Amino acid sequence: MDPIRNPYAPGAGQRPPELAGRDEQLRAFDVVLERVARGRPERSLVLTGLRGVGKTVLLNALRSAAVRKRWGTGKLEARPDQGLRRPLSSALHQAVRELGHPQADDVDHVLGVIKAFAQRDAGPNARLREQWNPGIDAPAVKGRADSGDIEIDLVELFSDLGGLAADVGKGVAVFIDEMQDLGPDDVSALCAACHEISQSGLPVIVVGAGLPHLPAVLSASKSYSERLFRYQRIDRLAREAADLALTVPAEEEDAAYAVDALAAMYAATGGYPYFIQAYGKAVWDLAPASPITAEDVAVASPEAEAELAVGFFGSRFERATPGERDYLRAMADTAVAIAESGEAEVDDIGSVPTADVAAALGKKPQSLSPARDSLLKKGLIYSGERGRIAFTVPHFGRYLREHG
């Protein structure tokens, strides 16, 4: 098979050639956009799921849908070491520009509010060279979104932004990736702003994406967050959608898969979108001719697994300290022990009790709290419920067992 014509794209956040299995989410979002633009009540949206299920890809696709509706859009990626003001200001600056509001004075006022919101990060008495400039020419508006209280400031900022969008019959959508990495104060402010906007009927929505414990992060911040957001769990693809993700791009390059090859691919990838692209690329490069067979999949699997071991699993494992790696391996061993014992059912996320992990390491649970908390902060594990933990990366336990 010609590697130049290889259609598969195993990149972080890179849109695959066929966005299979996400039609329901795209259709639902189109309804949200229309309702919000018409002043109808609608909730903001939160996408949750493991690494490699395509949350970022879907987030970008939803943003594209908003752009096609001529909404103002902006996107940011949350980071544990960064506050919300600066990245959000840059995203909203872009959103205002996309709106195309005809009244320059009104636009300059909102841009001035965004600038004041951003520069408040440096403090009221900061020297000019210490103030971050978001590239906005309009002067900062004093007394608006610059109180220093992020919750008050964000409510004022979203209110002004929503008024500008309402003037032109459009909306503004803010897309936040890795939303679970926002600080507690920023999460609280974001929930409060979304609550205020939904009550006032202004056309502003937030679309967040994050790991499975993101709903718990939001709920811990504001009790009403459960009613504030529409939560959508993004999971691995069903067999039919996984087949489409492989066959549609192949057909566009005049190639095909044998039935047994598709079955082998699903068994190897588990339906996870990132794995489908990684295996698809490796199989295409090594298959001698079309149609691709199950034997081709077997020959190419070691190369696909080696690539995943370095780029997908290994890069994450290397971020852990030796003590944290011991904890991760103990999690993997504990999951196998639970499954083999038959004494308890393994849930659909493969979570394990923290007490069992401690027992596997021969230590008290309290002594392992620093390692566990560090792994949680690094996004390698998450806690779906009290006393249990799971990997954020699918098949990570298998990787750990196979690579010692």
TrEMBL record:
Residues of the region (Disordered) are 1-21
**Protein's UniProt keywords contain Methyltransferase:** no
Q: Where is the Cytochrome c domain?
A: 166-317
Q: What is this protein identified as?
A: ATP-binding protein
Domain of life the protein comes from:
Bacteria
> Which molecular function terms from Gene Ontology are attached?
ATP binding; electron transfer activity; heme binding; metal ion binding
Provide this UniProt record's keywords sorted from A to Z.
Answer: ATP-binding, Heme, Iron, Metal-binding, Nucleotide-binding
Query: Which SUPFAM superfamilies does the record cross-reference, listed alphabetically?
Result: P-loop containing nucleoside triphosphate hydrolases
Q: Which InterPro entries match?
A: AAA_16, Cyt_c-like_dom, P-loop_NTPase
Q: Name one Pfam family in it.
A: AAA_16
**Organism expressing this protein natively:** Nocardioides guangzhouensis
